[in-house]
Amino acid sequence: MPVLPxxxxxxxxxxxxxxxxxYPQIATIAANFYFCRYIRMKNNKIxxxxxxxxxxxxxxxxxxxxxxxxxxxxxxxxxxxxLASVERQDLLGSSYLLDTIYTACDTTQFFNFPTNSxxxxxxxxxxxxxxxxxxxxxxxxxxxxxxxxxxDTLTGDSCCVIKHPFEYAQIVNVGLYSLALxxxxxxxxxxxxxxxxxxxxxxxxxxxxx
Length: 210
Fold this sequence. Notes:
Lipocalin, 36% strand, 8-stranded antiparallel β-barrel, 2 domains, extended, alpha+beta, two-stranded antiparallel sheet
């Protein structure tokens, strides 16, 4: 075994070793000392490396969990939504002129969001119809975008005009049992004399399967 320099040892350790052991034994002790110090340094590097890996793993998992599109989309697809009411708000600029809530309808209206990015709406505006389109969420998870085309009445009971009411709809609320979408003139910029009409569609979940 090679002889290692003893100058790195503390003086009191050297005195004890020199008085108690012969030179080959001293060399062995020195070798063991350096070996143990090497192992400790190596273990410290391993611990630091594993700690860095753990931090990276936590950050990656947090990013995945915090993705608003993933978490909000799962609320849309987990069930079928029945329309409970439609609120119409007529405004002049930011001033409310009229607020009307529609609840009566001879038919049941459903908005359905399967997981394959398609969507269906049944009996929109109390008109017997079954329409299909696609849907997605904006990157921040605040708006629903759907190209679904729906028949709507012109005035009174006269029919019909094709509309895309959910082309860009603000998600007011979405949870396990309720969904509210705000559509119409929802732009953030408008003048004080601009007439605006906003619709709020409120839905309730009636099942947990599509």
